[in-house]
Amino acid sequence: MLSLLLTVALMLSLLTVSTATPPDAAAWRPIRTLLENWQFTTEYAISIGTADHGQLFVYESGNFTMDQQIPTGSTSKWPSAMMFAGLVGDGTIRSLDDPVHEYLPYWTKHPLDARSHITLRHLLTFTSGFGDGHPGFEFNTRAARAWRAGRTPPRNNISRECDLESGDTAKCAQSIYSGVKLIGVPGHVYSYNSNHLQLAAGVAVAGSGLPIKEVVRRYLLQPFGLTDSYYEGRCPDFAGSLVTTGRDYERFLHSLLSYRRHPSPALILESERDGTPFLSDQYTLYGNYGFGARTHTTSAARSHFLMCFDSAGGYTDACADARSHFDPGAFGFIPVLDRKFGFYLNLVAAETAPTGSYPLSGIPEYLAVGLKPHVEAILSQRPPRAEEHLHHNPAIAGLSLADVNYALGCRLHPDSCA
After folding, report:
1. Which residues constitute the signal peptide according to the record (predicted)?
2. Which end of the chain is more exposed for a tag (fewer CB within 10 A), N or C?
């Protein structure tokens, strides 16, 4: 009971800031002007909203719309992790901290085998120890390209049981268990790869007794209201094969921001805790990790990043204070959730054919990072005058000269970013 009360108290302390009266249309005109003059990305959409008021601003560029179905790449991870957390929400799986061996009969229970200590939380925070990987091997930004220079990519899981079209989710999980070695102690090592969520899918199928497509429908599509989304393949890659629209992903972000829907307020809060505090002093490109996403905050579990973008100082106090989360995708889909100012920023792009060009896929996240301070300013208690958004203003400057150099270089010389 005490634990429940503490969880509720902590959740209330993190409730999003919300304005009684949302900014009017005039307040967003500078944002529209900035986007109309952005020359580095042409086919994309952006939506911005708050928990209380929903969508406050939307912008669609070129022929791109919020209803365009596109691949997401790693932006799949956040919805996938919250989907699997939903099985804890309805009691199908008792706890995030249940050992996986309680659901998968082939999994070792021997206490001297480190795998026996792996929990669902470890899988959703990518700290199970299975396999190797780093976001630097996947993304196409300046920082990612610099990081992987001279490094050898990890070996991908080539098991036929995990093949997108011919594989089987349960057999895929077992093949990872038997064929992929641990690289460290569960809970104390982080690796960015598909193994963790494929294992979580195996747990979900075994624990629920449902086929994987029904798990997806019951725990993701239906509760979050995703009407135009699906995972590709018979054996989906839950870390990268979600196809969705900006409108559907906006529903997902609003659900998390408002704490009002699936899986539960307590589990949403759990998902935003820091799952990799041991990375805080390291350069990690995006920040520490939670349930399937990256964020700016301190605490215990996520599959997204706790946002600390390209920080040479690691996960800093300033990043923790910003309390922001994001889940960048390899093709330019960049969703951001800002708890401090109480908004979501949904940048929807797919810099891959037919909606874009892969050499430009590293650019959209710079647009999201650059735009975020402007949104914070508009939603603050003392918003700046419109012209302050359109001139040099250090208080709302989100990009560095190095960032501009990269974006311009890719635009002028795309072969250098291919």
Report:
1. 1-20
2. N
Phi-psi region of 49 (alpha: psi -120 to 50; beta: other; left: phi over 0): beta
Distances (CA, A) of 153 to 131, 133, 303, 352, 373: 12, 8, 21, 22, 34
What are the backbone dihedrals phi and psi of residue 34, each rounded to the nearest 5 degrees, phi first?
Answer: -60, -40
**Considering the entire predicted model, what is its pTM?**
0.86
12 lies in a domain? no
What is the rounded CA–CA span in Å between residue 303 and residue 272? Answer: 9
Q: Which residues of the chain have pLDDT under 50?
A: 1-6, 9-10, 12-14, 16, 133-139, 144, 147-148, 292-302
Q: pLDDT for 196-231, tens place per residue?
A: 999 999 999 999 999 999 999 999 999 999 999 999
The domain in which residue 44 lies consists of 17-61+70-417
Instruction: Assess if residue 2 is contained within a domain.
Output: no
Task: Copy the structure tokens of residue 182.
Answer: 């641990």
Q: Which two tokens stand for residue 242?
A: 């979600």
User: Is there a contact between 60 and 66 (Cβ–Cβ < 8 Å)?
Assistant: yes
Number of domains making up the chain: 1
> Looking at the domain assignment, is residue 383 inside a domain?
yes
202 lies in a domain?
Answer: yes
Measure the CA–CA gap between 49 and 337, rounded to whole angstroms. 10
List the beta bridge partners of residue 334.
347
Contacts of 78 (CB under 8 A, 6+ apart): 252, 291, 292, 293, 303, 304, 327, 335
CATH code of the domain in which 31 resides:
3.40.710.10
Query: H-helix or E-strand containing 161?
Result: none
